[in-house]
Specification:
mainly beta; Neuraminidase; 2 domains; four-stranded antiparallel beta sheet; 1 helix; 5% helix; elongated; disordered N terminus
Length: 500
């Protein structure tokens, strides 16, 4: 018996080991693999949306991203060369100080991480290996040995916030440079001074601690801040109305370019670091994302030319060279060949019921006082059914309106209900169930709900509200609870409700 038990345990253990081995041998998920039917698309374009841009150290080449691939382009314009391809999402290229590599953000290992690749598009190396706190916006330190990037943190809301981390280009766990102030107000867009001492970044400094959509961009949402890597001190550099995002230090170390809101426009500005003078440079940018959730940054990456005389920036679907002294902008023409593999979208055939069918949902059920019939809403109309096995039939012959909220009087001879159409809004109506006559109780346009008879049937009480996000807000005044004679007459507001 003991031998049998021992043999059973050995067999059971063998089964567990075999199952574990089989599980370990299961193929890992690959972003480049076809997950369902796919098709190829190919076209050429001379414009793009939200293109991150960088300039090579020798000033001869522009790197940019387009539809998740990385491209190189002569700085004077021309035909762009694609150096990465496939379903992977590669964005935010930055040249290494020696010009031989690009850092970038990619999901090619599953989840966004920091990568680097040769300018020939070969020998991609993963730098960060986060599986949950995902990375973006990598920038090089001047010695070419390290990369600073934004790490994304979330809590109970998916919005999240960022911290800045330093990674050696060979990888590793990284070193924390800044700390998020909470889980909802963002921090990111790192840029490094030419001497490597300072790290500039943008941070949501509006009153917190929660993220809110549609904050006032004419106040201060984001500010440009500066970390001193020697002392650890962090100070605000630009925190003025209109905010400030996407800092970029000039190669000569004298100026900092950034994006600021001026009225309805996003405007490229420069800050003289020694004097503190802020000067608007070019108001041709596309709209920034200061009011929104922008974990990749409120504006796309841009860069200075090596001589600090101009900036190369994306705006309005195009690439532009902006003179750093005059603000004069000239278009950098380009064309790029796009080749993408896209997954076929899921499509499900929905068969609409025809003729007679059972509705999937009914609502607003009202039972007659004698319990012999019910009136209910289905498919936008009111129906009456004799209990228990009667055949439902249309209550009215109304055309062009939706009918809701039936309510019997105490003896079951009359019925109140509401009707809706876009032109007339809500109308409160009364139906005589014996004669089939139907009349409008309300003559003024508005939003009427929940009408009921008084127990003796002499009065009608109802509520008047207002429009909302899916309806117009006209005819929304004087909300409240109203009482009126059932035979007709003036309605009196007995309870006032707040507007909106």
């Amino acid at each position: 018996m003991c031998l049998a038990i021992a043999i059973g345990l050995v067999l059971a253990a063998s089964g567990v080991l075999a199952a574990d081995k089989k599980k370990d041998e299961a193929p890992k998920w690959d972003v480049n693999a076809a997950h369902g039917p796919t098709k190829k698309i190919a076209f050429s374009t001379d414009e793009g949306t939200w293109m991150d841009v960088d300039v090579s150290p020798d000033g001869k080449t522009i790197a940019f991203d387009l539809l998740g691939d990385l491209y190189l382009l002569p700085i004077g314009g021309g035909k762009a060369k694609r150096i990465t391809s496939g379903p992977t999402f590669d964005v935010q290229p930055r040249f290494s100080p020696d010009g031989k590599e690009l850092s970038f953000t990619s999901d090619r290992a599953g989840g966004n991480n920091v990568w680097r690749i040769g300018v020939d598009g070969k020998h991609a190396v993963q730098v960060s290996k986060e599986k949950f706190r995902l990375m973006n916006n990598p920038v090089w330190t001047p010695d070419g040995q390290y990369l600073i990037a934004r790490k994304h943190f979330t809590s109970e809301r998916s919005l999240g916030a960022g911290e800045l981390w330093l990674f050696h280009k060979s990888g590793g766990d990284g070193l924390q440079l800044t700390k998020q102030k909470n889980d909802q107000q963002d921090q990111g867009e790192p840029a490094v001074s030419p001497d490597g001492r300072h790290v500039y970044f943008s941070e949501d400094v509006s009153p917190g601690p929660t993220f809110q959509y549609n904050k006032n961009p004419h106040d201060v949402i984001y500010a440009i801040r500066r970390l001193d890597r020697e002392t650890g001190e962090i100070i605000n550099l630009v925190a003025t109305p209109g905010g400030a995002v996407r800092p970029e230090a000039s190669p000569n170390g004298k100026r900092l370019a950034f994006v600021k809101r001026v009225r309805e426009k996003s405007v490229l500005h420069t800050l003289e670091l020694e004097s503190g003078e802020v000067r608007p440079l070019w108001d041709g940018l596309s709209h920034d994302m200061q009011e929104a959730w922008a974990i990749f940054g409120p504006y796309a990456n841009f860069d200075w030319t090596p001589d600090s005389s101009a900036l190369v920036v994306w705006a309005q679907g195009k690439l532009w060279r902006v003179d750093a002294r005059t603000g004069a902008a000239s278009n950098i023409p380009f064309s790029a060949d796009v080749e993408q593999t896209v997954a076929e979208p899921l499509r499900f055939t929905r068969k609409l019921d025809q003729g007679r069918f059972a509705p999937k949902m009914i609502r607003d059920v009202a039972t007659s006082p004698d319990g012999k019939s019910v009136v209910f809403h289905a498919l936008g109309q009111l129906w009456m059914k004799q209990l228990p096995e009667g055949e439902p039939r249309r209550l009215t012959s109304n055309i062009g309106v939706y009918e809701y909220q039936p309510s019997f009087n105490s003896v079951g001879t009359k019925l109140l209900y509401t009707s809706w159409n876009d032109a007339d809004l809500v109308t409160l109506r009364e139906r005589d169930l014996a004669t089939g006559s139907d009349r409008a109780v309300t003559s003024r346009k508005g939003f009427y709900f929940g009408a009921r008879y008084s127990p003796d049937g002499s009065r009608i009480v109802y509520s008047r509200g207002g429009g909302g996000g899916l309806t117009c807000r006209l005819w929304s005044g004087e909300p409240g609870i109203y009482v009126m004679p059932a035979a007709g007459g003036e309605a009196i507001r007995v309870i006032c409700l707040p507007v909106g």
